[in-house]
Design a protein that fits this description.
This protein has 141 residues and is mainly alpha-helical. The chain is built from 6 helices and no strands. Helix 5 runs antiparallel to helix 6.
Length: 141
């Protein structure tokens, strides 16, 4: 049975999950895949330095990270997932990312004529972050 009671959610893990998401994004779009992302976007480092301040985008991203973190926390609060281990939490986070986020966003890439590489760069970030958030939430309930 689906439990709509939000009292079982550890709200601190939702906030920490959002911080994890932002940290992973910083590393992902920095040393891991930053150059590949810039290439896919047709940007240079100069373009990024001369462009608008990223503060507004970071704020909006943090709000989105809270929403995703909450969604995973809510899903993990359901009785079916009560016994998740750290590995189980990581797998659940990755599956949610790949199936729901990937399935929902891939049509945008298709209609915007973006490359599969561009899609995979973004999905790599989301999947790693959601796996880490799921692992954290499985341990810290």
């Amino acid at each position: 049975m689906i439990d709509l009671n939000l009292d079982t959610i550890n709200w601190l893990t939702v906030l920490v999950g959002a911080v994890i998401y932002m940290f992973v994004g910083g590393v992902w779009y920095g040393p891991i895949a930053g150059k590949a992302w810039m290439s896919e976007m047709g940007l240079t480092e100069e373009d990024l330095k001369e462009g608008p301040s990223p503060a507004a985008a970071m704020g909006k991203s943090f709000i989105a990270a809270i929403v995703m973190s909450f969604g995973l926390a809510w899903l993990m609060s359901q009785s079916s997932f009560a016994e998740l281990t750290i590995a189980g939490g990581a797998v659940l986070g990755a599956i949610v990312s790949l199936v729901l986020v990937g399935g929902a966003t891939f049509p945008n890439y298709a209609f915007e004529d973006k490359s599969i590489k561009h899609f995979l760069i973004h999905m790599g970030n989301v999947t790693v972050a959601m796996a880490l958030i799921g692992a954290m939430m499985a341990v810290w309930r």
